[in-house]
Amino acid sequence: MFNKILIANRGEIACRVIKSARKMGIATVAIYSDADRHALHVQMADEAVHIGPPPANQSYIVIDKVMEAIRATGAEAVHPGYGFLSENRKFAEALEAEGVAFIGPPAGAIEAMGDKITSKKLAQEAGVSTVPGYMGLIEDAEEAVKISGEIGYPVMIKASAGGGGKGMRIAWNDDEAREGFQSSRNEAASSFGDDRIFIEKFVTQPRHIEIQVLGDKHGNCLYLGERECSIQRRNQKVIEEAPSPFLDEKTRRAMGEQAVALARAVDYSSAGTVEFIVDGERNFYFLEMNTRLQVEHPVTELITGVDLVEQMIRVAAGEKLDLTQEDISLDGWAMESRLYAEDPYRSFLPSIGRLTRYRPPEEHVEDASVVRNDTGVYEGGEISMYYDPMIAKLCTWGPTRDHAIEGMRVALDSFELEGIGHNLPFLSAVMDHPRFVSGEITTAFIAEEYPDGFSGAVLHDSALRKLAAGAAAMHRVSEIRAARVSGRMSHHEREVGRDWVVSLGGHDYPVTIDADRGGATVRLADDGALRVTSDWVPGRPLAVLDVDGETVVAKVAPQPLGFRMRHRGADLDVRVQTPRQFELSAHMLEKTPPDTSRMLLCPMPGLVVSLAVSAGDEVQEGQVLCTVEAMKMENVLRAERAGVVSKINAEPGSSLAVDDVIMEFE
Prior knowledge:
The chain has 17 helices and 40 strands. The model has no long low-confidence stretch (mean pLDDT about 90). By secondary structure, the protein is an alpha+beta fold.
């Protein structure tokens, strides 16, 4: 077994590998760029080596710099994580030439299956059903348009060396194919150093289901069930689960056996994933093979009990698998929610900054539930604009799918995160969505259910009533404390009123509170009564309430006349007023926001890649105005209406903050 391994990656996956290595008694080496000098993976590793400036193409994906770090530390093996160099044949060959083990598949398998064009050709030759497409290299945008027309719209434009949703676009017409080809090519070159593009038919209403495979260097190979990855946004997975709520045992076995056969065809060893598109009749089509560890591997670990990182290390060290296919069984259900630094209220645009508060729910392993949080950040740390915006992967396990979902709901409500925009509210909303709960999902779920973007969850009346009762009880505690501090009260609470009006979510609830030593009974105007108990005290940002026997978890911040409460994807301004205050508040004027309709504001922190117009130009609705890059994703900004550009305030290469004015219109 190895004595020391280097992790050629960063963030949560580097931390994840370190945990398994530490469990195995193996020393670890981290590498880091200037932006990651104080990152969590650097703190966790036994050694750390600086490798360059923040951009990945000047640090993490520069093979020579990684090789220098290996030589300097005497690492015997390298785990590449995912992304970066994980599917780079030249890197695997460089390690082999240096006599350093690659904790991944052989270079030949990477070349055969890691390249999406080559892998699809091999799959076709092996008789595997594949999605129609053009596997040759595409020289320019006009050729992309021609090929797209021959295949038939819609088409998927994909980077050959891509992954993680980067370098991918869906085109529904010639204009989108032309524009998508160029954007995909730019992203591919920036993220992977490889700008090759291919095009395939985009299958509507598909499910994205993948099979985890594991092989050793002695000819043994098996599959560890499937993962449902259909909840995607912009081709980026958001929520994964294992097993799939759609597959039956017959289809699972057929997909697994086909995945293993494909792996054997290229002498695959290590962990890998064969991805399929599955239609409504459970017909499945090979999509691609990822010759690396997947982001969503924890859900497979939770239902099989197999540590995939440990198995990868053992296989790389030449050990035989100590598992057979008969040893693999699927126990219970697991969910994974990807927590991203992106603002769901601003079209999920990337967010950067300092994590002023980062308190994940407590991890635990119990007979009936598991909470696991794979992360690479910490409170006070910075989210950089240079890398993938993932903050954490929150996972739950339960004996059934319903239990896993409920565990995830509570875990998301309990996750405290402040300082940046993040998608926690959206994840919570999905967990409560009837279509998700039913399991009737496709890769079009987000586009279909949130066609106009996400503006917050709308809670049912029963949930609002519980929150109103909880807010009333909490407000009473706050009032008692304020009265004591001011000296208005000594040993009794008679000066705190019993009658209040709680306003939230567009509803007003007149309530009467009867308190005792055990809690409070909150009576609503319709004669309903809810019993509220909690150990919450003013200033605590997380409230765990028992409302009529049901646990209600909400993030709480004080506001004038009440609280800001966040629960199940809803962000609520909660006012708790006396009846007289409520009566007078109806006469208060609402503050109107400033008029920015004649300005193009930067929707996210990023760099201006290009400007498509100049001052004095007349533009039409939908016309491209400029392109802004953030976290290696290009975002094309378009005109909302016709007008004339009066002033340009930025230029290519400009670094902008949120709401900086890019240009103005007459």
